[in-house]
Every structure is written in structure tokens, then in C-alpha cells.
Amino acid sequence: MQTMERRTTNARAPKKSETSESKQPRESRETKEAFAIFAPEAQTVELVGNFTDWEQNPISLKKSKDGTWKTAIALGPGTYEYRFKVDGQWRNDPDCPRRTTNPYGEENCIREVA
How many angstroms separate the CA atoms of 93 and 38, rounded? Predict the structure, then answer.
């Protein structure tokens, strides 16, 4: 038969100032980045990129009355590649001047976040 031994200790609970809960949160360097594309006839528009694992976690855009689809997402500093999927068709951001060739022989747009 096993016996259970109750142990008591003189250890005190840590003060709130000693716990990680009291540490000030580190300043986030993420900024809201706006993405938009004019596609008034579209039924759906998604933002995909290396920050969404491409098609694994697409971000749905919302359509404005003027036909512009928009979203804003938090991104940390870095260089990001992205494209839009408009009704399932790949489209580049016409307002993005920087591009890089992708493995499929097309171009990805580049967004630099400082």
C-alpha cells in the first residue's frame, strides 16, 4: 500500500513585483499595413502572401461602395511578398511598383515594412 506524505514548506509565494505578470509589455513594432485593389465586378478578393503561408491562411478583403476591396493587417518590420486572388484568379497590386519573379514565372508584389 502506498502512503502519501504531505509536505509543507516555508517557501513564500512570489510577490507580484517578482512575477512575469508585472513586467511591462515590450513595445510591439508591428504596424497596420493597408492593402487595396479596385475590382468592382468581383465577388471575392483575398490577400495572400508569405505572411499568410500563401493559400493556407488567406485574408478576405471587404468591398467598399466604390468597388475597392480593402483590408489592414499588422506586420512587423521586414520584406513581404504578396498577391491578390480575385474570384480565384491571381492578380498583382497595380499600385505596387516593386516586384520579384516567383517560381511560377509570374511576379509577386513586394511590401517593405520599416
Answer: 9
